[in-house]
């Protein structure tokens, strides 16, 4: 006997929540008007019309989706997050289309998806020719997606009489269960307070370091979102000064740190910070790679008549390591030009990701820790089959359900990567470009290898390739399960 289809999904409430996202999105578009008017860049009307379309659509959805039942269950949470992101990308590309800066839908969708998912891959060949208002909106899309507009909305949902715990779990589906505050709304507020404060602080540092205020704002938005969109064609190579690049390095590292750890550090609970196994692994791995790559780059760049100070080799190496691991994607040097071995190393780093509970994409350190620790303990279990050998993280036993989740996630991630690479190859792209484009899109990094390396962009790819990579960006940003669960018959059928 076939299972009955669930009829309890409250679609009115789903679109009511999305209506709030639309209104917020339109309001954020309006923040680009001061830049457009100040610089007289001629894109004010495009931003204004786009914002009005978003706000009017949101208002219409709000009044047409009134529902007595305002609760949000888990299924509805997944639908809200998925539909919410699709609405944000679809309406977020309006400024590009209306202004004519990116006239083709496939390109505009790709650029917006790259921004909202904080990937940082771009189809713009001359970024510095883009009007200031549009350029600011491009950076802001990353800042919105960095922490997730869903979490922002969760913080104001109590004012609307809407619960938010299901939304938060769908938006941040990683294995970590740390909570800054037992009430999800308070957690969201604290996360955004830290996020905003660090962004403002970085703006001030970059301005003092020599950037214009406009460039400082844009790079701070992209840094804290671990996004990587720059206002310069040469990315951070255009600012080859220690003050600016070391500041970006530090804040990229902070953006890739679990915000719970950052909060504990701000509360001076350093003992709890140092008990976090993921943070220790993150810090150690970045430090170890910095030493190895710096020595290698210094040796390579000082062969023959070439001369490079060790500080420069160290800074370029550390910058690119932190940029790739945190999935920010800023470029201070062409790492594919260093050596084939280092190119392969940076390709592997595309699969790493920083900490869970951060704005970074990728697989995340905590999943790698669970997998490798459990694999190591399996040798002990083989030698002592009757012994109980628990896996511990942060001095706590990891539940078998978490280990199963991690193993399935890693397997699905590799399957998606392989399928995506095969599709790109079928479209006629060479091996390096195919695997590089898929790995960087799925990991939300930005630069890859092959013809999508750190000094290239994605403009030359076909529309079909851009649609495939856009889907992979969304899949990676929502960490696979949030999207793939919708494709499962179990989601739509009763138990």
Beta strand count: 2
Global Rg: 22 Å
What is the count of helical runs?
23
Strand count, sense and barrel status of the largest sheet are: 2 strands, antiparallel
Q: Structural class given helices, strands, pairing? A: mainly alpha
Strand order of the largest sheet: 1-2
What assembly state would you assign to the polypeptide chains in this entry?
Answer: single chain
**What distance lies between the first and last C-alpha atoms, to the nearest angstrom?**
13 Å
The averaged pLDDT comes out at 88
In percent terms, what proportion of residues is strand?
under 5%
**Percent range of helical residues:** 55-70%
Overall shape: it is: globular
What string, H for helix and E for strand, traces the elements in order?
A: HHHHHHHHHHHHHHHHHHEEHHHHH
List segments where confidence is low: pLDDT < 50 over at least 5 consecutive residues: none
Please give a structural write-up.
With 495 residues, this protein is mainly α. Helices cover 64% and strands 1% of the residues. It contains 23 helices and two strands. It has helices at 11-30, 33-39, 44-64, 74-92, 94-99, 105-116, 132-147, 149-160, 165-171, 184-209, 213-224, 242-255, 259-266, 270-274, 277-301, 310-325, 340-349, 365-383, 400-426, 431-442, 463-477, 481-484, 489-492, and strands at residues 392-393, 396-397. It has a two-stranded antiparallel ribbon. Strand 1 and strand 2 form a beta hairpin. The mean pLDDT is 88.
């Amino acid at each position: 006997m076939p299972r009955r289809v669930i009829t309890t999904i409250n679609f009115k409430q789903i679109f009511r929540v999305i209506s709030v996202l639309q209104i917020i999105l339109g309001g954020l578009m309006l923040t680009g008007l001061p830049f457009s008017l100040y610089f007289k860049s001629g894109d004010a009307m495009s931003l204004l019309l786009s914002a009005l379309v978003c706000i009017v659509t949101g208002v219409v959805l709000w009044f047409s989706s009134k529902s007595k039942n305002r609760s949000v269950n888990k299924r509805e949470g997944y639908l809200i997050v998925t539909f919410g992101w699709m609405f944000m990308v679809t309406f977020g590309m309006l400024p590009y289309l209306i202004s004519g800066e990116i006239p083709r839908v496939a390109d505009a969708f790709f650029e917006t998806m790259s921004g909202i998912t904080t990937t940082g891959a771009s189809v713009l060949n001359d970024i510095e020719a883009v009007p200031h208002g549009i350029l600011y909106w491009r950076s802001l899309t990353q800042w919105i997606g960095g922490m997730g507009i869903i979490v922002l909305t969760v913080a104001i949902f109590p004012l609307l009489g809407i619960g938010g715990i299901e939304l938060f779990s769908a938006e941040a589906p990683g294995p970590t269960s740390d909570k800054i505050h037992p009430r999800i709304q308070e957690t969201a507020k604290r996360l955004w307070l830290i996020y905003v404060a660090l962004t403002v602080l970085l703006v001030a540092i970059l301005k003092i370091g020599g950037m214009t205020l406009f460039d400082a704002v844009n790079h701070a938005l992209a840094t804290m979102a671990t996004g990587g969109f720059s206002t310069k064609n040469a990315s951070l190579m255009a600012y080859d000064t220690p003050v600016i690049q070391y500041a970006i390095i530090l804040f990229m590292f902070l953006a890739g740190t679990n915000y719970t750890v950052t909060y504990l550090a701000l509360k001076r609970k350093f003992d709890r910070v140092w008990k976090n196994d993921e943070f220790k692994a993150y810090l150690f791995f970045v430090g170890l790679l910095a030493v190895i790559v710096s020595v290698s780059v210094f040796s390579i760049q000082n062969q023959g008549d070439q001369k490079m100070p060790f500080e420069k080799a160290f800074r370029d190496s550390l910058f690119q390591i932190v940029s790739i691991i945190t999935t920010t994607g800023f470029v201070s040097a062409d790492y594919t030009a260093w050596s084939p071995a280092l190119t392969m190393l940076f390709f592997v780093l595309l699969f790493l990701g920083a900490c869970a509970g951060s704005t970074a994409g990728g697989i995340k350190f905590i999943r790698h820790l669970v997998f490798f620790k459990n694999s190591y303990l399996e040798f002990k279990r083989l030698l002592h089959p009757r012994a109980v050998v628990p896996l511990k993280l942060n001095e706590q036993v990891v539940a078998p359900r978490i280990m199963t989740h991690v193993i399935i996630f890693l397997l699905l991630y590799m399957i998606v990567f392989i399928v995506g690479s095969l599709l790109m190859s079928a479209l006629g792209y060479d091996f390096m470009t195919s695997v590089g484009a898929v790995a960087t899109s799925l990991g939300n990094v930005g630069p890859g290898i092959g013809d999508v390396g750190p000094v290239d962009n994605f403009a030359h790819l076909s529309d079909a390739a851009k649609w495939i990579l856009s889907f992979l960006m969304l899949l990676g940003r929502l960490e696979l399960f949030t999207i793939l669960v919708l494709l499962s018959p179990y989601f739509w059928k009763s138990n």
